[in-house]
Design a protein that fits this description.
Structural class: alpha/beta
Distance between the termini: 37 Å
Strand order of the largest sheet: 1-3-2-4-5-6-12
Number of strands: 13
Helix content: 25-40%
Length: about 425
């Protein structure tokens, strides 16, 4: 991090005149604040240490890695630098992902294009995800990398001049402590912007304050926390998507009977919003349907054991709503090992490969899938706009889509599949 005394004193003087929390809430103030930050960075750039060792207190140099076309297929790693290097002639051969991000009236910008963006050479965006093993986050990474590829091509940046990202996170979405440690580490590297998917909405406030003190804009991807220090949130409308899931599950069971929920976490924002919205939709619209149990996947008991206990208590159970890809996969596996479960209808969230096959075979009624490629792209655009000092929308709804056996293979829906 930049740690010379004159720079620190100048920054503290500036923060006294122009409170950081106000800057993050007010687009006009944010622009002035970020231009000041850019000027400070340019003045003190020589003291930023490059290197791969975090303990050096400096930024990691971008390493050779896969292009956006490869990002969806590669295995998860603890830390991946996502600047591509090597044969520039391969750029034209990359398979592009179709990127769409809904634009609503009154929004400050388009988030599915990099047109008009102009950021300093070598700018560094750190991304910390919730679960590197999940198809959703691999797709987010692919969308983010495509945004960087487009940006670098637009600006003519090559080699070490490219804008680059690191993409990190724990190996499962229950490991809050590891994620917090990773966030602490990337903040110490003083990135130009930070994109976060927060596991536990009760954690991370200290990290938001540290990022603000270090003048690092924070963009939330998928799940976050309540904080005035967040520049923007790029996410699915979790409540609206869960209500759609409730409508389809009730349709599948004939608008009558008992249903259960298998939720990924008790205290992550996306899970909380999906569970509450699903239950509310049932209560308000389907008087003959009852949510009898909510099981959470971040406890000590396995999903298989929880479902076994649920079915013993409610043998007439007719439907299950799974709040993300992992919960749907585990539910499908658990029911496959049990007898007399063919009558249970499953509606999922997300669209991993196991879910796709189950829908095609009729073992899953359908799923509400997110738009992870668009989410990743939009998060990079929002981060770059913040770095540049441009207005950024506080909420960016990246959209969702219902998929079932009649629609999953349509060409127009391929951009929603986590392949």
């Amino acid at each position: 991090m930049e740690n010379d005394s004159s720079g620190k004193a100048e920054r503290e003087n500036y923060e006294t005149q122009n409170d950081c929390s106000t800057a993050f809430r007010n687009p006009a103030v944010l622009g002035s604040w970020m231009r000041k930050r850019s000027s400070d960075r340019q003045e003190h750039r020589s003291i930023v240490v490059s290197g791969s060792d975090r303990n050096s207190g400096g930024r990691r140099k971008p390493e050779a890695s896969s292009s956006s076309a490869d990002s969806t297929a590669e295995s998860a790693s603890a830390s991946t630098s996502s600047e591509s290097s090597g044969d520039e002639g391969k750029e034209a051969d990359k398979k592009r992902i179709e990127i769409t991000v809904p634009h609503k009236d009154g929004m400050e910008a388009l988030y599915d294009t990099v047109d008009g963006l102009n950021v300093e050479k070598g700018s560094y965006i750190a991304v910390v995800a919730k679960d590197l093993s999940a198809g959703f986050w691999k797709a987010v990474k692919a969308g983010a990398q495509q945004a960087l590829d487009d940006l670098n091509a637009s600006l003519g940046y090559t080699g070490n001049d490219k804008v680059y990202m690191t993409f990190e996170g724990p190996e499962n979405e229950s490991d809050t402590n590891s994620q917090i440690n990773i966030i602490d580490s990337v903040i110490s590297e003083n990135p130009d912007a930070l994109i976060l998917g927060i596991i536990d909405q009760q954690s991370g406030q200290a990290q938001m304050e540290e990022a603000s003190d270090s003048q690092i804009p924070v963009v939330i991807a998928d799940s976050g926390i309540e904080s005035d220090l967040i520049t923007s949130t790029c996410a699915t409308d979790h409540a609206a998507a869960a209500k759609l899931a409730a409508d389809h599950l009730c349709e599948a069971i004939g608008n009558s009977g008992e249903v259960a929920i298998v939720a990924h976490q008790y205290n992550t924002e996306s899970s909380v919003e999906r569970v509450e919205a699903f239950k509310k939709e049932i209560e308000e619209k389907y008087t003959d349907v009852k949510v009898v149990q909510v099981n959470y996947g971040d406890g000590e008991e396995s999903i298989a054991d929880m479902l076994k206990n649920t079915l013993e208590t409610y043998p007439a159970l007719k439907g299950i709503f799974c709040t993300n890809e992992d919960m749907a996969d585990q539910t499908l596996d658990a029911l496959a090992d049990m007898e007399n479960t063919e009558q249970i209808q499953i509606v999922g969230f997300d669209s991993g490969e196991k879910q796709q096959k189950a829908i095609q075979e009729g073992r899953e009624y359908g799923t509400v899938t997110q738009n992870p490629y668009g989410l990743g792209y939009a998060a990079i655009v929002a981060a770059v706009r913040a770095i540049q000092g441009l207005p950024v929308d506080q909420k960016i709804d990246t959209g969702y889509q219902w998929l079932d056996k009649d629609t999953i293979d349509l060409e127009t829906n391929q951009k929603y599949l986590y392949n």
